[in-house]
Amino acid sequence: MKIRATASEPSAPVARVAPKGGARRIVLSFFVALTASAALPGPAIPADTLRVCADPDNLPFSRAEGPDRGLYIELAELVAGRLGLRSEYAWFLSNYGRRAVRSTLLADRCDAYFGLPDDPEFMGRSVIRTRPFLDVGYAVIGPKPLALSSLDDIKGRRVAVQYGTTPQLLLATRPGFRAVTFKLAEEAMEALTRGEADVAFLWGPNAGYFNKTRLGGAYAIVPIAGEGLQWHAAVGVKKGQDSLKADLDRVLDQLKPEINTLADKYGFPLGRPVNVDGQRGMLRPAESGASASSSKGDGLIRLGRSLFNQHCSHCHAPNAMSPEPTRDLRRLALRYGSRMRETAYATITVGRVDKGMPAWKDLLGEEGIQNVLGFLESVQRQR
Fold it and tell me: What pTM did the predictor assign?
C-alpha cells in the first residue's frame, strides 16, 4: 500500500478554553448541540454512484489529476460503467496503511477500496474482499534478453535495490550478491541506465511504469516470487456488504481482458514469477504443510517486520539489525528481561522525545504496534 497529509482528511474540531465559572454551561451547551446535530440526517448517498477509495498520488496505481489516472482508477471507471453507475472518489494517501482504510472505507466515505492485499490478516474483522484481480510484487529489471531461472543467475552482478525493501534485506542474507542501495526506486532505475548497476531488483509496478514511460520499454522485467515478494490485489468492501462484493466479483471476472490491457499500458510485470530458488510460481500457505496456528503466527511476524522496516529501519536498521549497540533492538530482552514487551510498548506508543524517538501510536495503531512487538520478540538475542 506511501505518508502525507491531504485536504480530503476531515479536520478535527477546535478546542477552546472557557472561563472557569461558565465551563459547565458551555460543556452542557456543546453536548446538547452535538446531540441535536447527531440526530440530523447525513448527506444522502446517490444511488447511482460507486464511491471509490483511492490514493491521489500513487502512480501507476492511482492519481487524482493528470493524463495518467492509474490502473486502479481506470479499472474503477470500467467497473462502475458495467454496474450502470458513475464513480466518485474519496482521496487519502495509501501509505497510511490501515489508517487509510479506517478513514475512508470504514468511515463510510466510500464503498470500495481497490488494491487491498488478499490477506484475511489485513483488517479481516472489518473488511471483506473480492477475488484477486491482479498480482503485484517485486521484479528483476535488466537489459534484454533477461533469462532468469533463480536469483543465483544475478549473483556477482551489481544489483540496484531500494533501501529498506524486501530485496535489499534478502540479498543481504545471501552470500555472493553485490547490492547497490538507493533511497528511491527511481534513483535505482536511473543508475541502471547510467551503467552504475547491471540489474535492478525493485517494486515491479513502479519499475515497470518507469521503464514504459521514460525508457521506452528498453528493459526486460521478470517478476520474482518468494516470501514477502508477491501479493494478490483485491477490492475491499465493508463487512456486511455481501451484495456489493458479489457484484464486484462478477464484473471483475468479466473485465479480465481489460485488466490485462491496463496492466500492459502501465508497464506492470506480466507472466508467471520466477521463484527466488529456481521454482516457477508461488507457494501458497495451504501448500506449505504448516499448521493453521503456526501459519497465522508467522504471518503476524512477517507483517510486524514489514511495518518495522517501513517505519523504524531508518534509525534501527532493516530487520532491527543495527550495528550500533544502543540502537540494536535485538538486545531488548537482554536489557529489560521480563519487562521487555512492556518497555518497548511504552516507547513506541508515547515515544522518547529527548532521544529523538517520536510517538508512533497514531500512525501504527494498536494492532500495528502489537505486530511490531511480535516481530521484535522473534529476533531477540540470547547473549
Answer: 0.66
CA 158/CA 167 separation, integer angstroms: 13
Q: Side chain identity at 108, as an amino acid letter?
A: D
| Distance between first and last Cα of the chain | 37
Across residues 134-148, what is the average pLDDT? 93
Comparing 152-156, 241-245, 356-360, which segment has the lowest mean pLDDT? 356-360
Q: Measuring CA to CA, how many Å separate 266 from each of 87, 95, 132, 313, 375?
A: 21, 20, 19, 30, 35
Mean pLDDT, all residues of the chain: 81
Q: Are strands 49-54 and 86-91 parallel, antiparallel or unpaired?
A: parallel
Residue 1: name the closest of 105, 141, 87 by CA. Answer: 105
Backbone angles phi, psi at 88, to 5 degrees: -140, 165
Cell 484481480 belongs to residue: 133
* DSSP string covering 351-377: -BGGGTB---HHHHHHHHHHHHHHHHH
**pLDDT confidence tier of residue 45, bands split at 50, 70 and 90:** low
Alpha-helical runs (H) found in 139-216: 166-172, 185-193, 204-214
The distance between the two most distant Cα atoms of the chain, rounded to a whole number of Å, is 80
Nearest C-alpha neighbor of 101 from the set 127, 119, 130:
127
Phi, psi of 223 (to 5 degrees): -65, 145
> Torsion angle, CA of 256/258/261/266, rounded to 10 degrees?
-100
How many Å apart are CA 209 and CA 76, to the nearest integer?
19
Q: How many helices (H) and strands (E) does the chain have?
A: 13, 13
Report the distance separating Cα 162 and Cα 189, nearest Å: 10
pLDDT tens-digit map of 145-196: 988 898 999 999 999 999 878 898 888 878 889 999 998 999 999 999 999 9
DSSP string, 27-64: HHHHHHHHHHHHHS--PPPPTTEEEEEE-SEETTTEES
Half-sphere exposure of 341 (CA within 13 A, CB side): 10
pLDDT-derived band at 26 (thresholds 50, 70, 90) equals: very low
381 vs 305: CA distance, rounded Å: 16
Least confident stretch, 131-140, 246-255, 265-274: 265-274
